[in-house]
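User: Can you write out an input/output pair for a complex, sequences first and structure second?

Assistant: Here is one pair. Inputs:
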Amino acid sequence: MHLLYQIFVDPFVQMGAAPDLFAQTLWDGLVAGVLYALIALGFVLIFKASGVFNFAQGIMVVFAALTLVGLHEHGVPAFLALGLTIVVMFVLAFGVERLMLRPLVNQSDVILFMATFGLTYILIGFGQLLFGGDPKVMIANELYLPSGEMRFKGLGGFVSFQKIDIAAVIIASLMVAVLAVFFQRTRIGRALRAVADSHQAALSVGISLEQIWVIVWFAAGVVALTTGIMWGARSEVSFSLQIIALKALPVLILGGLTSIPGAIVGGLIIGIGEKLGEFYWGPLLGGGIETWFAYVIALGFLVFRPQGLFGEKIIERI
Amino acid sequence: MRAPSAGDTALGEVLLAVEDVSLSFGGVRALTGVSFDIRKGEIRAIIGPNGAGKTSMLNVVNGFYQPQSGRITFKGEVRKAMRPYAAARGGIARTFQNLALFRGMTTLDNILAGRALKMRRGFFWQLIRHGPALAEEVEHRRRVEEIIDFLEIAAIRKIPVGRLPYGLQKRVELGRALAMEPDLLLLDEPMAGMNLEEKEDMSRFIIDVNQQYGTTIALIEHDMGVVMDLSDRVVVLDYGRKIADAAPDNVKKDENVIRAYLGQPHGVSV
Amino acid sequence: MQPIDGSLDTLPKLLMHNARVIGARPAMRHKDLGIWNTWTWAQMLEEVRAFSIGLAELGMKRGDKFTIIGSNRPRLYWAMCAGQALGAVPVPVYADAVADEMAFVLAHAEVTLAVVEDQEQVDKVIAVSEQLPRLGKLIYDETRGLKDYDHGRLISFADVQAIGRKKLAGDAECLARWEAGVADGRADDLSVILYTSGTTGRSKGVMLTHRNTIVSARNANIFDRLDQNEEVIAYLPLAWVGDYIFSFVQAYVAGYCVNCPEAPDTVVQDRREIGTTYAFAPPRVYENVLTLTMVRMADAGAVKRKAFDFFISVARRWGEKILDGEKVPLGGRLLYAVGRLFVYGPIMNQFGLSRIRVAYTAGEAIGPEIFRFWRAMGMNLKQLYGQTEASVYVTAQPDGEIFADTVGKPSPDVEIKISDKGEVLFRSPGVFTGYYKDAEKTAEVLTSDGWVHTGDAGFFDTKSGQLKIIDRAKDVGRLNDGTVFAPKYIENKLKFYPNIREAVAIGADRDFVSVMINIDQTAVGSWAERNNVTYASYQELAAHPRVYEMIASHVDEVNRSLSEEEMVAGAQIKRFLILHKELDPDDGELTRTQKLRRGHIIDRYGPLVEAFYDGSATAQISTQVTFEDGHKGVIAARVAIRDVKIYPVSTAHMVRAA
């Protein structure tokens, strides 16, 4: 009885008793959620267009951030470094299409999946070779990203917002908006949706799969770079960052592998869910539930909606 | 219907010729030394029993398969094999036996997708929908609307094609191919799985496309009645080889053809 | 009756008037290539005039008859008015008429020119042109597919207009001459000849004058307060008097806008885009839409369905009362308002009926459930009773006096009487001048003092003072034991079940009543899916034992309800069967307006009728059918016959004919 009280009543009492803390937790969850959503978005883009589950998405985040910081360390001005990093991401996309996807076309999904494992290790090795394995500091100031915090009084206390978090949310939202317009309104966007629906049909109307693949890998690369900058600015740039890709997994389960809105909403649910879980229910289990709580949420969903929040309903008729 | 004389179109120049094409997958031979041509403005039928290599032939023509030997001449240009992109760019459009549509997209978007190659304006202009890109978009939309009108599918304009009945999906697929304004239209069993009424409609559309737009058509079809009614010339494949190539009336009388259709049980044993 | 203004007594005069007075208002729209094109009254006058002068150049003269064939397109309506401006008479023909029907009408009307929609109609006319020695030019609207045709005879609508415009530009007096020609038109000139498809025999050409149609239209506009702000969709056959009056004459008189759909199958979407305010539809349309809604809801999730059912019950309870301005408690009003927001509004919007002000149903009896459903949704649905011979209006229901089982009070200027035999007769300014070239038939229907025999049996309901129609007068028969047998009454009761599309009751001069039933494929198909009944074809579905069981339960309910009504209790259904094919106008089983041709059906299905009365449990039938392209084929089937329970008459005294 006491346990039930602790699970179902007490946390909500606490939320009501200290609304400032509740708002703070929500905000922290939202920021984390936005970043999860960005990573999941990278997965979804690539999966939609080429049917490849890109295991290397996490390392692409690290690689992009490392390249940016590394270039700056070698004396390249910050914004030039940013531009060069974008070029590097394009070269990476181009290379992946030429050296990995094209030779493996028509192979089974598992083989392509394994190939992205290979890509992961190539990027790790390459990154360490060029920029060393030590953690680095993101060049946030040089990129004119704000720092410090803003405090708002109210709700019986105060809520603090890190300026970098606010920037992250704004930039991520802009990024999503640009992508959405791109997919809905442009010829390439239409072609991309076409490829996602049927490779054969897309080929027959003269859509070049190769071109589309380069574009989505490049788009995923830019999304990775954005994620890397934001996340790096909040902590540090190191290879351990790649484990945040694991956070994208429950997001994908929640949002479905093929849905962009799903990735966004899924990211937010996971981000907010795990922060609230950690703060209000964590103490019951001695804390530290943040690392696995996301999977519990995702599993819960899996039982009721195997296709995810927005995924296509798949009905196998026999 | 059409007068079944091979004479009138035999005069047209050769649009596409395949010469001595052989194709195999591993050890299995799909096509062996097949040669034939398609002349401008004609309706060319490719027939044959199941497993005769008809679809493989179409896949060679539009570059889905690269044959091991032989050559393909399209619009006077000789090459060893087609590539899908080059085929589409060169004016070859096709439909598929088992439908290949963008199921999540509407009828309108599916047909618009057929104009992918015709859209030339850059990204930026498209994003802001202004200037030349807007004019271009309006022009494409008008062309697509003409096709919608032509195929009598206005009622399903905004419906995702995945929700349409089969016969209409076939029609949308034809619409998408037409949106490419092709010089050569490849139809892989356009009437498969249709009822009599739908078949009549589809036949009418095929004839209209051929006559009104002068589009050259190559089609695979099982329904002999349809083939005889529609086509100017018929090429017959059996076990991946060409066994006849003539006007429909003559093909009907050809002994090899009769044997192939009525002879020993066919196809791969299971 | 108000006298008709001499300057506004023909349609061309009204057109010129509207162009002058409300020239900038929309007169017509047509959706083409995905875009709505609009013509104002001034623009429409220009189009009509150009075509009219073109027609004159092609040799059209006063008194000529010309035909119009096709679907609802602006140019076909313009063609009618353009001919009328020259004093010629349009004879619109049903676009889906088979060749010999068409040949008969065109030959009988002695048409000298044809304006048709497209290649399909051109082909049909050419196919019968040997029987039409007087037929001259063939004008077509849609050019597609007509490139290789004989252009000595064919000419496009646009080319005729070009001839007219050239003439106008080149001949200074041409315009004045044309306008003088219009001014020469008289109220008693023929406006149109409409061939009625008739349930028996050859069709007859109903001659209506401008006076007939304009007075009738004007009265109707006043009755329902229709003005230039109305938007209507023209989607019913051009050859039908309803369309002629609703989409043409009433529009010219009131100055409202007529919208032509993109294609016959886009009407619902087009209506949604336009937002029609005034609509007319046969009961079948309301029925189909309701069936569709119900089928969709049956497939929806449990919560949604529960909410739907709840709000529908709210609507049934309060909707009609609110519509009729009765007193309703605040709670009821509030619930109804919520329902309108979440249920009724979206449903009405789904079918493009959000802005509807007045909607009519006529032609057949409408199921009371269907009728009340739409009224409960807040649609001002009313009934009217009309005839071609009356320029439509005989009776109509005034706002606020609506009943499901009556057809209304006499329309303005209409007198009605019931003959000794129970037949309804009427007299009005809309009464036709006779059947074209058929004095004999005219004399049968139109008395010398202006009364028209409707051929319908009916009576005035004492409670509401409104007319009730039971059946065709000649169809009311008697069983061998003398019991009154009104087949349509029984059929309608059956047809009110969504699963039953058509029913044919047999019983006149027989020992008992039997019924042949046509199932509704949409409703029964959806039922089958929900109940795991598998089938490969309509025929298989119709013969399925579980479908039989379901239909048997409907028949049983009908019998019980019949047993409670003393007039008809003696004529309950004893045996029934489900037909293996859908009744189809192409096979002559229905008229073009989807009415049963009972006599023809009984002949065609003779073996089944025989089996009813010799007690067989099954019967073999093979029937010839016509496919859409004109090919003929044969469908054969073995059909099962079921017996049903007869209820004892529950009223104390049963009326027996002596």
